[in-house]
Write a structure and sequence with these properties.
Number of domains: 2
Number of strands: 8
Helix content: 40-55%
CATH superfamily of the largest domain: Alpha/Beta hydrolase fold, catalytic domain
CATH class of the largest domain: Alpha Beta
CATH topology of the largest domain: Rossmann fold
CATH architecture of the largest domain: 3-Layer(aba) Sandwich
Mean pLDDT: 90
Strand content: 15-25%
Low-confidence stretches: 1-12, 30-41
Order of helices and strands: HEEEHHEHEHEHHHEHEHH
Length: 317
C-alpha cells in the first residue's frame, strides 16, 4: 500500500530572499565602512581640499617612478605638484620644495590632508608667494614601514641617498627647476621633519631651507636602521651633528625653520635644538604652539605659514 505523503509549501524562496537581502545589506554596510575608512585615511576626518572660487589657475599633480641605485635599483613613486601656470610658461623655472612624510605615511597626504596644493594655488592667486614645484617622494617600502629617511645599515636601504641624489637628479633633469641649492628646500612632518634636518645637515649647500614640522633632532635608536654603533647614531642625530657642520651651514646660508606644540612629546628636544642653533649662530626661526599636539590639525593649520617661509627663503641666490 502506498504511503501517503503530505507536501508542505517550501520556505526556501523566503529563506533565499531573506538571505539575499541580508547579504545585500551587509555588502552595502561593508562598502560604507570601507568608504569611511578609506576617506578617513585620505583626509583624516577633514573635508576634501578644494580651491576657492577666486583661484582661476590651478596646479597639476604628476606621479613618476624613480629607479634608485641607492635602493638597489628599486623603482619608487614620487608625486609632484606642478605650480599654477607651469604649462602656460614653458620657459619659466621654479624653486623646488621637497616634502617628506612621516610614519605611517604616504606622499599623497601632503595634498589630500595637509592641502599643500590648495595652499599654493591660493597664495599664488593672491600674489602672496611665488610658485614652487612641490616634490613628495615615497620614502619607504610600505606605508607602515619605518625607514627614518636614513642610510640604514642593511643593503639597499640608503634612503637618504635616494632622496638627496637620485630624486634630486631626476627632478632637476625632467622638470623645469632652478637646479641650485639656493632654490631648493627640504621640509617634513614628524619623522619627515627629522629626515629634513638629518639629510640637510649631511648635505650643506644642497638645500638652502630645512623645515621640520613637529620633528625631532635625535635619531630613534632602531638597531635595524642604525645598528649599534654610537658613532653612527650620533652622525644621524642633528642635535649632536650640528657642531660638526655649523661652519658649512653658515657659509651656505642655510636657514632652519621649525615648530612644535608645547604638548608634543618632542617639545624638550626641539628646545634643545633651538638653543644649539643659537649657540652656533645658525639662522633660524622657531615656533612653539600652546595649542595643538602631534597631529594633522597642527600640520594642516600651519601649511600656509610653512609655504610662505619657503617662498621667502628660496627667492634668490
Amino acid at each position: 500500500m502506498a504511503t501517503g505523503q503530505v507536501v508542505l509549501p517550501s520556505r526556501k524562496p523566503w529563506l533565499l530572499a531573506g538571505t539575499a537581502a541580508l547579504l545585500a545589506f551587509l555588502a552595502v554596510g561593508a562598502f560604507g565602512v570601507y568608504r569611511y575608512v578609506d576617506n578617513y585615511w585620505l583626509y583624516r576626518g577633514f573635508a576634501p581640499p578644494h580651491d576657492p572660487a577666486y583661484v582661476k589657475v590651478r596646479g597639476t599633480t604628476v606621479r613618476v617612478y624613480v629607479a634608485s641605485p641607492a635602493l638597489g635599483g628599486r623603482r619608487q613613486p614620487v608625486d609632484l605638484y606642478l605650480p599654477p601656470g607651469y604649462a602656460a610658461h614653458p620657459h619659466r623655472r621654479y624653486p623646488t620644495l621637497y616634502l617628506l612624510h612621516g610614519v605611517p605615511g604616504r606622499p599623497g597626504a601632503f595634498l589630500a590632508t595637509v592641502r599643500m596644493g590648495v595652499v599654493e594655488d591660493e597664495l599664488v592667486a593672491l600674489h602672496k608667494a611665488r610658485p614652487m614645484i612641490l616634490v613628495m617622494p615615497f620614502g619607504s617600502t610600505g606605508s607602515f614601514t619605518d625607514e627614518e629617511w636614513a642610510n640604514g645599515v642593511r643593503p639597499h636601504s640608503a634612503w637618504e641617498t635616494f632622496l638627496a641624489r637620485d630624486v634630486v637628479r631626476y627632478v632637476d633633469t625632467h622638470f623645469r627647476t632652478i637646479p641650485h641649492g639656493w632654490a631648493r628646500g627640504l621640509a617634513g612632518l614628524s619623522e619627515g621633519g627629522y629626515g629634513s634636518l638629518n639629510i640637510g645637515l649631511h648635505h650643506p649647500g644642497e638645500f638652502r631651507l630645512l623645515e621640520s614640522w613637529s620633528g625631532y633632532s635625535k635619531a630613534d635608536p632602531i638597531p635595524s636602521i642604525f645598528g649599534k654603533s654610537k658613532q653612527f647614531y650620533d652622525y644621524n642625530s642633528p642635535l649632536l651633528m650640528l657642531k660638526h657642520v655649523r661652519k658649512a651651514l653658515r657659509r651656505e646660508h642655510t636657514f632652519i625653520w621649525f615648530y612644535i606644540a608645547k604638548k608634543d612629546h618632542g617639545f624638550k628636544e626641539n628646545q634643545w635644538f633651538a638653543r644649539a642653533l643659537e649657540r652656533d649662530r645658525i639662522p633660524h626661526k622657531y615656533y612653539v604652539f600652546v595649542h595643538g599636539g602631534h597631529n594633522w590639525a597642527l600640520w594642516r593649520g600651519n601649511a600656509a605659514r610653512a609655504y610662505l617661509a619657503a617662498s621667502k627663503v628660496l627667492r634668490g641666490p
